[in-house]
Specification:
The chain is an alpha/beta fold. It is built from 11 helices and 13 strands. The strands form 4 sheets. Strands 3-2-1-4-5-6-11 form a 7-stranded parallel sheet, with helices on both faces. The longest helix has 22 residues, at 96-117. The radius of gyration is 19 Å and the shape is globular. The structure holds uridine-diphosphate-N-acetylglucosamine. Uridine-diphosphate-N-acetylglucosamine binds at residues 87, 89, 127, 129, 149-150, 153, 180, 182, 201-203, 206, 218-221, 232, 234, 275, 298, 301. The site of uridine-diphosphate-N-acetylglucosamine (UD1) has 22 residues, from helix 7 and strand 8.
Length: 344
């Protein structure tokens, strides 16, 4: 029998890409989402890409314990991938209670329901933000988790700890936290991608929205950093590669290949890319010219952050394969698809 994977937040940006790859790999998926930060575009896109029309979809809020528990009564779930959380760094600084309440309660409810219903594997969607203001690069999983710089980051650290402690106390739960660096791009079909609400905070959606004419000009935050071209360095991971890392992780868990009951992996490409390199590559592959200017540094940005991905490469047997060119082409194709849908 096929293994069933519950994907909380499965109608969102990363969740929808993961759903596609899980189905491609032969898993059954149950998508659960409260639709607080997305519409049905990606869920419909997933059905088109996979040709699978009967993917169960449950509209629900993980902050409501009763409905979470019901999921485990209604379905036999072998593993859960937990994405359902708020994710805007800046917003979390302004609305900390909303972030702590939503991100912690939803995860606690999930673990409590699992505890009640027997064995399960949990993949927690974490972030490189848990490393705080890093002192040594590249970042390995053994690098210390320094104080996170936002409530959002703190919820990621806390959820990792909650998962680790629960696993320690509860032998029927196993878990892996994946720490993503900077996920970007879209599915090559251009049927699923990132749909930021309002003005995007992240670099790539801001670039694509500037290119399409929704934004006037991209502000590059700082060109006086101690980096080769003066702009910040990050580790931009293609969202399809990232999704494949989830499939490798799920397989590791359900096939009983974990070395410890709780494990952590960095997911990135392991190569630093500057903001300027990203902008010029975007211009080159998509044969367009982007309106951009340099402005002051953005508060809270670290000059450089990239991953050592050796552990994920060796233990998960996974490696990022899409090139920056392919990724930035897919991001642009997706933006054009969104514009076309909006103009209909
Ligand atoms: C942030 C979060 C990270 C999260 C990621 C994706 C922190 C410290 N980082 O990463 O946890 O996973 O978003 O949601 O909490 N930039 C510009 N102009 C723009 C936007 C960005 O120059 O309009 C630059 C930034 O200065 C930065 C780079 O682009 O150097 C990437 O920024 P962004 O996409 O916002 O991601 P991070 O801040 O690295």
């Amino acid at each position: 029998m096929k293994k069933q994977i519950l994907v909380s937040g499965g109608a969102g940006y990363i969740g929808s890409h993961v759903t596609v790859e899980l189905i491609n790999a032969g898993y059954d998926v149950i998508v659960a989402d409260n639709m607080s930060n997305c519409d049905m575009t990606c869920y419909e896109g997933v059905k088109k890409i996979t040709g699978k029309q009967d993917i169960p979809f449950v509209e629900m809020d993980f902050c409501n314990y009763g409905v979470v528990e019901k999921l485990f009564t209604d379905y036999k779930i072998d593993a859960v991938i937990h994405f359902a959380a708020f994710k805007a760094v800046g917003e979390s600084v302004v609305k900390p209670i909303m972030y702590y309440k939503n991100n912690l309660l939803s995860f606690l409810n999930l673990l409590e329901a699992i505890q009640k219903h027997g064995a399960c594997n949990v993949l927690f969607s974490s972030s490189a933000t848990v490393y705080g203001e890093v002192e040594t690069l590249p970042v390995t999983e053994k690098s210390p988790r320094l104080p996170a710089t936002s409530p959002y980051g703190k919820t990621k650290q806390m959820c990792e700890d909650i998962l680790r402690d629960t696993i320690k106390a509860q032998t029927n739960i196993k878990g892996i936290a994946l720490r993503y660096f900077n996920p970007i791009g879209a599915h090559p079909s251009a049927l699923i991608g990132e749909l930021p609400r309002g003005v995007p905070n992240n670099l790539v959606p801001y670039i694509t929205q500037t290119a399409i004419g929704k934004r006037e000009c991209l502000n590059i935050f700082g060109n006086d950093y101690p980096t080769p071209d003066g702009t910040c360095l990050r580790d931009y991971i293609d969202v399809v590669d990232l999704a494949k890392a989830h499939v490798a992780t799920i397989t590791r868990m359900v096939e009983g290949c974990m070395k410890e009951d709780y494990e952590v992996f960095n997911v990135g490409i392991g190569r630093p890319v500057s903001v300027l390199e990203l902008v010029t590559t975007f211009e080159k592959v998509n044969e367009l010219s982007l309106n951009y200017k340099y402005v002051e540094r953005r508060m809270g940005d670290v000059p450089s952050l990239w991953a050592d991905t050796t552990l994920a490469n060796e233990e998960l047997g996974w490696k990022a394969t899409r090139t920056l060119e392919e990724t930035l082409k897919s991001a642009w194709e997706w933006e054009k698809y969104v514009a076309q849908k909006e103009n209909k």
